[in-house]
Specification:
There is one protein chain. Helices cover 41% and strands 14% of the residues. It has a 6-stranded parallel β-sheet with strand order 3-5-6-7-8-9. The protein is α/β, with parallel strands linked by helices and 250 residues long. The protein contains 11 helices and 9 strands. The chain has one domain: TIM Barrel, CATH 3.20.20.140. Helix 5 links the parallel strand 6 and strand 7.
Length: 250
């Protein structure tokens, strides 16, 4: 499996607090079957991480992982919030590219509210040749109330990343229901851990995959799509599966 959302870099945000934490997260992920993980620190007003700081921290973790012979590939990235995008030039944005692929960027979906400028900012990225990957929208109450609202963005080319522990019930029934509706409705493209520390959350990817009860779809969400992003290849089509209609709740 490949995990493209993880706060494994130490001392940058609310994720790993130390290099020891980083190594512990890496070990847990390996034990769960993860072979590649993207280091995606928050990039927002409360964690104003710069590309230089992300790259420096990544070099430190890469060296430590090699010294400890931990068999995992760690690739760069950032979880950039919508407001931070306003103040960043394109060169900086691309340094935070997901898995180092300049065609993709992990964008943090807010936990509260539906931003009025959401579509405008995401379309702006698409026009610049950057595909936004929206992180964990199923944990937002507005999305939980009407998951189909994301359909027009997906239709434009935006990808949706679901937090694996939403499928295991960690974030409550509403997040679980929204995650399942997005996946069943063909509006989700990746599962990721969004791990912040070496806890049960880092173990959720395998559990969530099995909870789908659809091995082909689970592989597409946890390996096929993320591997295409990491390797810079074309995104494979979703495996043919029966989809449930999204329920419209007004």
């Amino acid at each position: 499996m490949i995990d493209l959302h993880c706060h494994v870099l130490p001392g940058l945000d609310d994720g790993a607090a130390s290099l020891a934490d980083s190594l512990a997260i890496a070990r847990v992920l390996v034990a769960e079957g993860v072979t590649v993980v993207a280091a995606t620190p928050h990039v927002r007003s409360d964690y104003p991480v710069t590309p230089d700081r992300m790259e420096s921290a990544l070099e430190t973790v890469l060296a430590a992982v090699a010294d400890e012979h931990i068999p995992i590939e760690i690739v760069p990235g950032g979880e950039v919030d919508l407001d931070a995008l306003e103040s960043m030039d394109e060169a900086s944005i691309r340094r935070f590219a997901l898995a180092g692929n300049p065609r993709f960027l992990l964008v943090e979906f807010p936990y509260v509210g539906w931003p009025l400028t959401l579509a405008e900012r995401l379309i702006g990225l698409l026009e610049a040749g950057i595909t936004p990957v929206l992180a964990h929208p199923e944990r937002n109450a507005d999305v939980q109330g009407a998951p189909h609202r994301l359909a027009p963005l997906v239709g434009e080319g935006v990808l949706i990343q679901i937090t694996a522990s939403s499928l295991t019930g960690t974030w409550g029934r509403s997040s679980n229901r929204a995650a399942r509706e997005l996946i069943d409705g063909g509006l989700a493209h990746l599962l990721a851990t969004d791990t912040h520390r070496p806890s049960a959350r880092a173990q959720a990817l395998g559990v969530a995959s099995r909870a789908l009860k659809n091995p082909d779809l689970a592989t597409w969400l946890t390996l096929d799509i993320p591997e295409a992003i990491v390797r810079g290849s074309d995104l494979p089509p979703r495996p043919v599966t029966r989809r449930r209609r999204l329920l419209r709740r007004w």
